[in-house]
Amino acid sequence: MSIAQNPLSIKVEVPREDAVLLTVEGDLDMDTATELQHHLANQLHHGRRHFLLDIAGVPFMDSSGMNIVLRAYQEVREIPGGVYVISPTPAVRRIMDLTGVSITVPIVESVEEALAVADSGGPAAPEPPDED
After folding, report:
1. pLDDT tens per residue across span 108-120
2. Which InterPro entries does its entry note (predicted)?
3. Position 94 in a domain
């Protein structure tokens, strides 16, 4: 029997009627990604169009977490709406860059920036990472 080293915690806030802020802490992986998926589906069911994912407290994300983020992005594009990843750690940001998730899903630094991007209709295409 394994004990979760970094259990997932998800705090849900509604900064305004059409948007939800999900503050995620802990590893977002195969064992925990379905919990995030349930929260996203519940908020979509309640009419939210903009999903703000604050993952500053996520030290590790694997492909299961990436898939949840991408699926949410694909679902809300039809509404129309958006998914905005807020403040990923450097390790998670690197994985998002390497897998191309950051090309599809906007990465922002704050809730205010995410809401501003949502209000502007979203970016046409997120900026590619700087090549050093």
Report:
1. 999 999 999 999 8
2. Anti-sigma_ant, STAS_dom, STAS_dom_sf
3. yes
